[in-house]
Amino acid sequence: MAQDQDDFDRRLRRLEDIHEINNLMGMHEYLHAAGRNGEEFEKLFAKDAPGLTFEPEDWGVFEGAETVKGCYVDGAPPEVPGLMTEHAATTPVIEIAEDGLTAKGVWISPGHETFPMPDGPPIAHWSWGRYGIDFVKEGGAWKFWHFHIYTTFRTPYHQSWVESSIDRPPYFPEPGQLMEGMTPPSRPVTFNQPYHVDTAQQPAPAPPVPYRTFDETWSYTDQPT
Amino acid sequence: MSDNAELTTEQKLQKVLDIHEVQNVMSRHAYYHGLGKNAEELEAIWVKETPEPTFAQNQGYFVGYESINYYYGELCRKMQRANLDLLRKNYPELDESDDNLGVGTLIMHPLTTSIIEIADDGKTAKGMWYSPGQVTEIMPPDHKPIAHWIWEKYGVDFIRENGLWKIWHMHVYTDFFTPVGESWADLTADAPMGVGGPPVEMPRPDIEEETYKVYSHTQLPQDLPRMPEPYRTFSETFSY
């Protein structure tokens, strides 16, 4: 009977964990769109956990709380009129480790970004990507631990991603070019593959599979095998 | 402030089930509205007995059953009829039967990026969503279908009535509504209500208040809707 109750409690805890992780991902999207990266970093990132990493698109891997903050907070675009970004989190695959200490998830993200331009009106873009994220429980709450953003495409609203892959818009920064104020990355990009007409798409990020403890799995900011 | 650790196992299990049911109610809204069946939606999944339901868009709040039934329900049907009449000028082969209401239109408001919180007392819930959507509607001056992108956010309060979760306060925050192929940075508008443009007279909100702004070159990012946070009972939180 006690074993039945333990099993019930464990399954209930897994359902609660899955919901909390979905909410965490939703909070990331809302706070980022509102330009509240600093607040998001303080509340939602595992600042005290060993091995905190952040790998956004083609910028490289940022390791440790100070460096991640130097990228995600100090390198965030300034909140100015004409800026608007929204990244939706859809199609989740979430696995909670059997030991309840870590979790893994992937999402597909359709989005849009509107950037103010120095010489003219803001330009609207479609921006689609994917997320591969490891989570860790810190102080009883789920936090972002290894956060990887993969580019699918970014293209002006009126131009297909096929065209933009062939004829890159001239105002786009060079791949890996740091934003003003951004801390340099700790190590190079592990994987990022924006659409290109002559490149076969690699299956990344890999959706997580059930696992017992993090030792058995990989990090989303490790070099994919 | 809620503390989940204080809840019994039974309460925790019920919360998880409630989260799923609230998501289903919101998804049913998307399906009803996508078919232009707003009146049927009000009948099926909105409150019937709880005081002061509200429906809000960027331009303000419609408050109470009579106001919502007309603006969100009855007007949708009238607009479908008026749009069919206009469309038939270009497609006279269409007959004017009710079976053709909604012809030429296509409405999808998918729900993503959810944050859902159930009150500890199990009586109310709050949720917000992103919706990357598209709306094809009959537009002047040619009265032909025109395809649009529409991105919105939802902030919604739910309440349990007779054991079932119902929509109590729904607030739609529109970021842009713009024809496909045109930039929302250059041209956008407030969202339409229901199917089609406004070929019938639109009532003004009961509370006229600019609650949210569509994108413009000079608009700062808006920190709305407010995210739901864990709570014990509705009196300690806000209303959408």
- Which pair of protein chains has the largest interface, and what are the residue counts? A-B, 39 and 35 residues
Helix content of chain B: 25-40%
Let me know the largest β-sheet of chain A.
8 strands, mixed
Runs of chain B in which pLDDT lies below 50 for 5 or more consecutive residues are none
Distance between the termini of chain A: 44 Å
Radius of gyration of CA atoms of chain A, rounded to a whole number: 18 Å
Could you characterize the architecture of this molecule?
The complex is a heterodimer of chains A (225) and B (240). Helices cover 24% and strands 30% of the residues of chain A. Chain A is of the alpha+beta class and 225 residues long. Chain A has a single domain, classed as Nuclear Transport Factor 2, Chain: A (Roll). In chain A, strands 1, 2, 3, 4, 5, 6, 7 and 8 form an 8-stranded mixed β-sheet that branches. In chain A, helix 1 (2-33) packs antiparallel against helix 2. The N and C termini of chain A lie far apart (44 Å). Chain B is α+β, with helices and mostly antiparallel strands and 240 residues long. Chain B has one domain: Nuclear Transport Factor 2, Chain: A (Roll), CATH 3.10.450.50. Helix content of chain B is 25%, strand content 29%. Chain B has helices at 9-34, 38-45, 65-90; strands at residues 54-57, 60-63, 106-108, 112-118, 124-139, 144-161, 164-179, 207-208. In chain B, strands 1, 2, 3, 4, 5, 6, 7 and 8 form an 8-stranded mixed β-sheet that branches. In chain B, helix 2 runs antiparallel to helix 3. The mean pLDDT of chain B is 90. The chains are: A alpha+beta (225), B alpha+beta (240). At the A-B interface, helix 1, strand 3, strand 6 and strand 7 of A face helix 1, strand 4 and strand 5 of B.
